Each structure stands twice: as structure tokens, then as C-alpha cells.
Amino acid sequence: MPFELQRLTASSAIHAERTILCSLGASAVLCLSAPFFLNTDRITTGMLLGAGTVSAGLFGVSAQISESKQKVYRSLQEADLKSLKQHLQGEAVYDYVTTAIAAKRRVADYVNRLPVQERPRWIAEYQLQGLVTLPEPPAQQSPSPTGIPNPDIADIDEEFVQSVINPGAMKILQAIAANYPEYIRIDGAWIDELCDAASNQNMTLRSNHHFYLSGGTQSGKSTLAGVIINKIAAKSQTPAIVIGSDPKDDVTRWLCKFSRKFDGMKALRDWITFATDQIDKQKARVSIVGGECHGVPELFLAQDEVDSVFGGGKGLPGMVDADTAKDLQGFWNYVIKFTAGLKGHGLFMGQSPLSGETGFSRPSLKNVCFIAMGQTSSYILDHPQDFLNVKKEILEILRQACEMLDKAGVRYALVIPTRSNPFVALIPEFDIKGLEQKQDSKPNSDTVHSSKNNQQSSQQKTDWYQEIRKWATELGRRPHFQEIKQKWHELTGQELNEKGVTLLLENLGYPDN
């Protein structure tokens, strides 16, 4: 114990003082009582009484000194006990933490042995990030996106603002926007700004990687999601990949084309498996180019009816079971947390903004550009602590704008980007009939080619792996390292690192000797 030496020293002094006190007390009692029991003369009696008085005085002084030392001794004892208690508490905390870590690692080892499609759910549910990873595809598997043809991107002819807005309401809105231009947007450029931030080829400057569109039935969520996909995909360095899940059996009007779409509730399991595999392929593409994402396509994962299929973790009775719902939750949170650096974009649509009904954790929602359409914004503004961090003055301005637009019957949204101020914006009108992209009716077909973009699409869909395989075959021998690196650069404009060249050689059937 830290105070053991001081306590022992004090203890010795206290014992000595107690011996002296006992001696002085006994002397005082004997000297003062002796004249009453002994037949002494006056001089002897005076001497005994004097000695007794002195002994009594010394006893009182010594008792006070001893009492102060006993207080010091008791303080040292209490300090030792407190130190011992803290030490035991520290040992208990250490045992608790190490036991918890060991238990979590055991859980992670178990999850690593489960099927790949289940792992994202358990990663999110038990916070196993960094302990469980989705396996990389085998080296011989081609990392090219050739298995998913590039979807044709729909052209968008949009008006800046809606012409149906009441002139009086517009006048008031313009006045508010003049004083708060960062929080009230009456132009249509806000959609381009969100998408430009999401498609910036400098990955460190990217934001709004993912989107959650919340609104009532027929509020235009899927339409706006398709517009966002088109705008970001148009800037993809190589053909974009668009994969989606539409639980409503292909009744949704989309303004984008899908590389692969899973229709209906029964396809949700296949959607999780297929989309997880595409994330693995995207990882491989990023790995080939040295992790900088140069030349890597934009990958879109779109999920409609989020709150319906999740159902607060219980699914949808008779259509989506609870296990599937929780697997979807794990997959969605995995997409949000781990695909932004892979040029991955999660686009989620639902009617409810509540975490309990959608399955999105609050940390996940902080990494999502949240778009509350129409009256859904009222809930956000009434519960700002879960979504917004603005002054009361700004909150009131946003609330007033939304109430006015509700009364005017105008389509609008409360937009909460990931790195800039929230704002209320008018939603532009879109010519749905002219822009709707129908899916191919042929069975087993994953995409449709627009005749309008046939020439462009054919150029975009050039299979560079087949081209370089043809070149290697004509060469008639194993290409040298520098030869294949230069040829790949001539064909694609991409610069491969050493790992990329090695993987390319393996994919062409030339394993590293």
C-alpha cells in the first residue's frame, strides 16, 4: 500500500505515547491519593501533591499531542483503504473490458463462418466493424463490370420552378429567400449541386454519397431518385451500374434504367445476395487501380419501400419475415457505412423518417443526404434534435416556408445535405410520360438499350478485357509486365499499378510464376 511506511511510523509513535500517558496517569493518581492513605508529614504531603499535579498536567498535554497523531493515523488508514478500493475497481474494470473484447472476438469468428449474405446484418447489429469483413472475390474472377451492361441514362428536361405556384405565395417566398438565401431555394439548381457534390472525382471533396427520400404515397420519391441517379451516373468515368429493389412488382415509375432490378417482395433475398456480390466486385475494381477509384464506375443500390419491408424489424406479415427484414437492415447500414469510398451510392425511399421504422441507425443517417418531401418535413421540424442542428430562428423560417407551401399546394422538400446547411426547396416539374424508362419485356433481360443512345451505349459498353485478351492471343506469348501495362493504358486511359497488372495477367490465364 502507498502509505504503509508512514502508517507504521505513526503507529510506533502512538504506542510509545500511550505508554508514557499510562505512566503519567498512574503517577498522578498515586501521588495525589497517597496522602489520604499514608501517614505523611506536611512536607512529604506537599511534595506528593506537587508531583501529582505536574504528572496530571503532563498527562493532559501528552493526551492532546497523542490525539492529533491518532487523527493522522486514521487518515492514513482511510487513504490506504481508498487506494485499495480504487485498485480493486481498476482490476474489475480491466477484467470486464477484456472479457467483453474476448466475447466480441468470438462472436466475430463465428460470424465470419456464416454465409456472406448474412454477415452485413450481424456486423450492424453487434457492432463488429473491423472484426468481420466481407470476403474479397477470388483472384481469377474478373473484376470488370462486363456482367452488368451499362444502363441508358434518361435525358431530363426540367423547369427551374413549378409554374403552378400561387403568385402571392411566390412573392412571399422570394422575400424570405432574399433574407435567407442559404435556407430557402426557389431555383432548380439545388438538385445539380447535390449531385455534383456526390459525383466529384476528387473523392476527398465528395459529399451526399447516399440519399434517403421520405414522403407520402405518390409524392414523387422514385421520380426524384431516378433524376438523382441519372445526374450522378452521367458523370461516371466508366459505365455506371444501377441495381434496384422494387417490392411493388414493377409498378413504380422510374426515370432511370437498371442494370438489374429485383421486383416484388419475394425477390428481396436475391437482391441482398446479388447486391452484396456487386459490392465485392466494386472492391476488386478499386483494388486494381490502387485504391484511388480512378476509372471506377459509379455503383447505385436503390431500395424502394424501406419502412414497408422493414416494418420496425418485424417485416411485413405474410410477405416479408422478420429475418429478412433484419438482413435488409444490416445490408442498408453496411451500404451507408462502407461503400462511400468505393463510389457507391445508396438511394433509399420510404414514407416514414423514423429510425425505428426504417432500420437506419442515427449514426448512419448522419452520412445520408435526407430529403423530406411535402408534409413529412413537418415531423422533421417538430423533432429537430434527431435531424437538424440549426438556431431557433432558422428553424422557424424553415417551418414558416413549409407551412406556406403546404397551403399553396406546391411540391417541395426539406433537404438536409451531409456537409452544408439544410434548406427548403421547390421540386421542379418533370415530364414523366416523356422521361419514363420502360424495362425490356424479354425474359432474363437485365437492361434495355435506348435507340436514341445506341451509338453512345455501344461505345461505352466496349469490353476492354476481351480486347486485351484478343491482343494477347494474337501476340502468341505471355505479355511482358510493361507491355500489358502500356496496352491497358492505350485502350482505357487507366494507369495500372503492380497489383493491377498482376491481377490482369491472372485473369488472362498467365498466373504469376
Overall SS class: alpha/beta
**Could you tell me the number of beta strands?**
9
Q: What do we call the CATH topology of the largest domain?
A: Rossmann fold
Report the portion of residues in β strands. 5-15%
Widest sheet: strand ordering: 1-9-8-7-2-6-5-3-4
> Could you report the average pLDDT, rounded to the nearest whole number?
78
* Whole-number total of structural domains: 3
Tell me the span between the first and last alpha carbons: 64 Å
Main beta-sheet annotation: 9 strands, mixed
Query: For the record, what CATH class of the largest domain applies?
Result: Alpha Beta
Q: Considering DSSP H and I runs of 4 or more, what fraction of the residues is helical? A: 40-55%
Reported CATH architecture of the largest domain = 3-Layer(aba) Sandwich
- Could you tell me the radius of gyration in angstroms? 39 Å
Task: Give the overall form.
Answer: elongated
Low-confidence stretches: 137-147, 439-461
DSSP summary: helix tally: 18
Order of helices and strands: HHHHEHEHEEHEHHEHHEHHEEHHHHH
Descriptive account of the structure:
The structure is a single chain. By secondary structure, this protein is α/β, with parallel strands linked by helices. It has three domains: 4-107; 149-457, Rossmann fold, CATH 3.40.50; 462-507, no CATH class. The protein is 52% helix and 9% strand. The chain contains 18 helices and nine strands. It has a nine-stranded mixed β-sheet, sandwiched between helices. β8 (412-416) and β9 (423-426) form a beta hairpin. α1 packs antiparallel against α2, α3 (119-125) packs across α9 (322-338) and α7 (268-288) runs parallel beside α9. It starts with a helix and ends in a 6-residue tail after the last helix. The relative contact order is 0.11. The model is unreliable at 137-147 and 439-461 (pLDDT under 50).
